[in-house]
Amino acid sequence: MIKFNKSFWFGIVFSLILYGIIRILLTTGVLDDVAESTLILVCINVMLAVSLNLINGITGQFSIGHAGFMSIGAYVSAILTLNFDVPLVFALLIAGFVAALFGVLIGIPTLRLNGDYLAIATLGFGEIIRIVLLNTEYVGGASGLSGIPAETTWTTIMFFFTLLTIVVINNFIRSSHGRACIAIRENEIAAEAMGINTTLYKVIAFSLGALFAGIAGGLSAHKFYVINPGSFNFLKSFEILVMVVLGGLGSTAGSILGAIVLTLLFTALQNTPELRMIIYSVILILMMIFRPKGLLGSTGLSFMKFGKKEAKPDDVISESSSS
Amino acid sequence: MEYFIQQLINGISVGSIYALIALGYTMVYGIIKLINFAHGDVFMVGSFIGLFSARYLASVGLPPVIVLIISLIISMTVSALLGISIERLAYKPLRKASRIAVLITAIGVSFFLEYSGVFVLGPQAKGFPEILNKKQYQLFGSSVQVDSNQIMILATTVILMIILQYIVHRTKIGKAMRAVSYDMEAARLMGINVDRTISATFAIGSALAAAAGVIFGMTYNSVDPMMGVLPGLKAFVAAVLGGIGSVPGALVGGLLLGTVETEISSLGYSSWRDGVAFAVLILILIFKPSGLFGKNVREKV
């Protein structure tokens, strides 16, 4: 599944250098606690956006229930570290796999749906997960879980999982399986006629996306001490979707950029709490009106040919097929 | 049995509100295939305009029924204008863009209305004036109670529904709306002004949502800037339940959802109420994706 080539190693080396620089800046105190906190937030959002991009942008399955997977990961990992003293890394991995299992469970019945109907169904599933959590006493009901050990630090653990997410998903996209997913996005019926098992690939995309969303959820739970069902409502799902679309649907680099830009924007607007959401929404509307394809369009993540269009822009194809 | 009928009556009055909002969703979706997430917030704006005009008119000293009718009309007119301006400013420039871009814009408009509401009016809930005095009526030998508010809600819904049916089936603009929703390009070629028709659809949908907002305020006596989120989502569920794009479907879906919800609450599971609404939605989508009244469209290759 994982392809090793020049561009891949270039990316890894680039990330390690970036890691080294930030590590030095953190230890020498150039970047303070607030900056580290923002950095963790950026990384969590990058993981969420990249994993949602696999489902929405690459496979073309319109899902807006990503916060549901995130909440499963957050709760599972929190319970494992709180009640069973599982080390954080294992708790995160188990949380990711439980979320992936839910991805399969949600993927299978909703495969008959497409487009807006799938979007509504995933939104419904996300809300059902939230309401089930809200009504389960074991996980604290509406007040949620608190006292979760705050073990998420930017160094090593956050960096490692973010890099893992990007590497696995980006390599998956560029493998033959990823090509199959793109074929499903472009034209599902044609893809099926060409012998692609559309059901299998949709389920794979859903569960892989859910896996990393679950890990990201676990990481955020171990960052903020407290989790409650309210923090994983559909607004959170929208927030992730906005990152993906703002960066450029179908582009891993775009998702990363979108997550970074929006997280920094949100942090910067924290000083004007009353106007924060108004400014945010106006930026969102203007952005969509003047650049509906997102910041990077559908440019792929590749360090050797950065900025070069990877494939034909998908809107040309979808426009001709819809009319 | 009486208990069941009592819950049915309560359910119908909740369902009428959902039905009125669902109509706006279903009409807009039928015509430009957009899930207008800002619709729930138009409902909120309508409710606040109803509140302010009712307060003013009552202070002038008009009789309650006149206050209700005039504030309904004011709220519906202003919301219709709001709906048209949202469409013109935010959605019209995106007619050619991908649907996901329009959807994100709709989410942006929704946030804008919510947080502008918080900014202008403050986050705390406001009391809605009691326009009509509540009167209780006993049915079936005093075992079932109906209050005047519930009768008013049902009457308003039925009247608006009849007007809507008349507009859609008997007027020129209604005919244009049906033509555009059937095939936008062909309608354009036949000389129909598509942009004006879409504006009219937004105007009618927003006016109905505003009416629902006023009724909601009168039923629950409390309104706040975030009140549109959940009823908006539920109304959307109702629209899908009935078959999105179908006007009678929205009515039936709304009433059905309202009834199911009140029955669940009356059985003591009120905290599961919203979950059941979404579970119903998913079951419907899996077994009959086009909804109860929707047309089954086969995918063409």
TrEMBL record, chain B:
Membrane topology value: Multi-pass membrane protein
Q: What is its main location?
A: membrane
Q: Which GO terms describe its biological process?
A: D-alanine transmembrane transport; L-alanine transport; L-isoleucine import across plasma membrane
Q: Where does it localize?
A: Cell membrane
Q: Where are the transmembrane segments?
A: 12-32, 64-86, 98-122, 151-168, 198-216, 236-260, 272-293
Q: Which GO terms describe its cellular component?
A: plasma membrane
InterPro entries per record: ABC_BtuC-like (IPR037294), ABC_transp_permease (IPR001851), BCAA_transport_permease (IPR052157)
Q: Which UniProt keywords apply?
A: Amino-acid transport, Cell inner membrane, Cell membrane, Membrane, Transmembrane, Transmembrane helix, Transport
GO MF annotations, alphabetized: L-isoleucine transmembrane transporter activity; L-leucine transmembrane transporter activity; L-phenylalanine transmembrane transporter activity; L-valine transmembrane transporter activity
Which Pfam families does this UniProt record tie to the protein?
A: BPD_transp_2
Similarity section: Belongs to the binding-protein-dependent transport system permease family. LivHM subfamily.
What is the designated name of this protein? ABC transporter permease
The root-end lineage is: Bacteria, Bacillati, Bacillota, Bacilli, Bacillales
